[in-house]
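Exam review. A common question shows you a sequence with its structure tokens and asks you to describe the fold in words. Practice with the pair below. Do the first one on your own.
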Amino acid sequence: MQFRLPLRALILSITACAATLPSLAFAQNDTIKIVVGYPAGGILDALARAVADAYRKAGNGQAYVENKPGASTMMAAMEVARARPDGHTVLLSHSMPFTSYPFTYAKLNYSPDDLVPVANLANVPIVISTGSQRPYKTIQEYLAAVKTDPTLGTVGLAGLGGPTHFGLMEMAKNQNIKLEAASYSGGPQLVNDEMGGHVPLGMDAAGAQMELYRAGKIRFLGLGGTQPVSFLPGVKTLHEQGIKGLENVKIWYGAYVPKGTPPEVAAKLEKAFIAVVKDPEMKKNFEKLGLELTGESAASMQSLLDHEKKVWEPIVKESGFKAN
């Protein structure tokens, strides 16, 4: 599909330098391995490679990326959780292995307690979108349309069992209407169906939709969470629009190391990673991919994890949803 090309080209341009890193040629004590639970070529992989490249250029040591996809990122989490706690193996992941997977999976192949935060690196803005041919131009108009015609209550999601899924349930409960999640294998398929008129509404990361939004082929009705996004001026959160349920719907990427890593080693990684993602040029480049670089401390990251776990645990348990 053509709309993938601009995003892919941007990812390739941002990661071009990092791709030249020699994978295993460095001395072990000078090298960190950044493990990502997705194949090469995606947005988290692009972030990991850019971080590795900048980490090396800043003189912190050598770094390379290992892609270990599988089991909804749990294979990557397991590898890092079982690694030696010496600061040489780092996980880059969204928060779900720590905040929702413990309640949606009957059995995990890792323990969330065996991994500790290093730094919050990036936010992934979540947008509520629809095809531009649809008559409703605001979230309020969409919800009113569903009340008149319940067949419009299908909402496309790129996978179930995460914040978008449970946030949708909360919004439906608050609005006293039926909204049914339709699972897609990925964002491009979802947006394609929105443009084709096959699904009335979708909720997913902004990145894969930016070019279509700018071209007027899809319409953004709002954002998840409570904070506006600098590169989406004029797009308000549903919270700002008075619609409850999506206040805690946010996807973000953080770095983790095995439990038992010496505090001074974790602190060094924290300082280095925060400095990397605070770079203005890197921030600007990733905004083009729909990613908002943050650079927040391990302490604030732990507070966010604790908050999200507290929020989602009762909601997930009430839903009865199980991932396996």
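Now try the second one, then compare your answer with the model answer below.
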Amino acid sequence: MTIEVKTFDELNTKELYDLLQLRSEVFVVEQDCVYQDIDGKDQKALHVIGFKNENVVAYTRIFKPGDYFEYASIGRVVVSQKERKHKYGYDIMKASVEAIKTNYNVTVIKISAQTYLKRFYNNLEFFEVGEEYLEDGIPHIGMVRD
């Protein structure tokens, strides 16, 4: 997998279509969650995209401090179901952390994590803050890495 970081304006039509398709495939269909994925925030984000054979197989979007949370943040973390066996989630998250350091010159990062993924994020040095809450009907927890 190769990883690229792009602004919204740098995305070509195929990349945008593919990343939105992957987000919909996992967050809407696989997780059976009806929610507004296209939320008007993609234009502010940097997009961290994992490509394999020219296909988008992993993705996150990152924000500078103040754009989403008080701290820099990573969201829409997704890996294609058929590619999860390769542990690309770790690769795309490590690249996202690096992209935040490089582009925003900060190290404190906050995420809103699906609760069942706490251990995955703990392995990436994110730790729980606050209480569990429902977001779009799915249990989440705030997590911070510094």
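Model answer, second protein: The chain has one domain: 2-106. The mean pLDDT is 95. Full marks require stating both points clearly.
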